[in-house]
Amino acid sequence: MHSRFDPPPxxxxxxxxxxxxxxxxxxxxxxxxxxxxxxxxxxxxxxxxERAVAVLSRVADASWSSSMRLAQGxxxxxxRFVLESGVVQMEFxxxxxxxxxxxxxxxxxxxMSVFCxxxxxxxxxxxxxxxxxxxxxxxxxxxxxxxxxxxxxDEGSTEVHVLEGxxxxxxxxxxxxxxxxxxxxxxAFRGQAGGRGAPIEVDAPRFIDAERLIQLSxxxxxxxxxxxxxxxRTIAANPAMVAxxxxxxxxxxxxxxxxDGPLENESSPGxxxxxxxxxxRWPMKQALEFKGVEDRVRVNIPGEYRSISLACWIxxxxxxxxxxxxxxxxxxxxxxxHWQFSDTGKLQLGVKVGDLxxxxxxxxxxxxxxxxGRWVHVACVYDHEARCVTHYLDGRRVSTEPTRHDxxxxxxxxxxxxxxxxxxxxxxxxRNFNGRMDEFALFKTALSDVEVRKMYEDGMPSSY
Length: 464
Description:
By secondary structure, the protein is mainly β.
């Protein structure tokens, strides 16, 4: 006798019990590898190679030296930065804030120290960053609270203007035993090489502050947005376009995503499920936000293709899933395409090539935790003639791999940002994208490196 609290008895299965006649399911190789090394890969993905000292928080019409490509939101490690023109804001992890006008040549030393060879800087220093230091070839300005500006000119002079609070100005050439100069609110001083210098009139309007930079940044954003709108019309008219969504000209209540490709295109508009309208790459641009597990845009893309190019602008808010959807065909039929990225920052294109097999083309690690919250351009080109698959991030090729089978590519019923597989009741694998999307394009040709690069440069949210 068993009480209702006892576990049920174990029943042996007879050795001659009928076996399933279905073929054993073969796990895709990427799942096998994930099971073996996924934890280690995630730990490595989350590790920072270099520690940041500041963040590039705002940019207005900035142009860096030819060896640098820095967009708004970039993390900045210790090192030299040459701003040829424009205005930028750097927020240090200590809490100090610098507005820098080009041309400028500065070196970030730490979260509390900067060396400036040339340029105009305006520093706002909270109590938490008390002691923040800007050093030049001739002087060292140490903040004692709260706001000061520096102008370093080509001839070697250093001007220090105290706009609020107090600064200790150290002359690097002063004789031993000589006291440092204390500058108070309203004081200014121009120092020369060799210990020479004299007081000057303070001139706050000469230095751009954070509020003025916001205005300049908004003007820059409007200009870039207007240029992108013109370019978007050219993209939409491309005869190779299969499906193009620029996410523009919608009301907040719209639950249909307009298809902006050629009028003769058979691709349908998208059906919005769960996603909410929000701000895109620029304050004036629209985007859809994908947050809930069921958020998605359902689309239908008919036809078969030998070559394709996929491209979209996204803002990733988290690497939440083993795989996160960009565009996934609902089915597992021959030739159907799945485009997504992994929780370790790899871009992936999957193509169904058999009943139990997909060709999965993974890039090297392209995305990083530092990309969270930043608008990025991702693209993938399946080139039938060149027999290769190439992944791109921000207009740059990150990997190329030979194709393994010659097969026609198909989409059919598909989803942006999620997946509703046609075997939903058997296996619901969560693939929802966490973030925003504000432009998507699918071409029926293989774009070149130059064409992908141009799409990125035409759509960059800020100058660099």
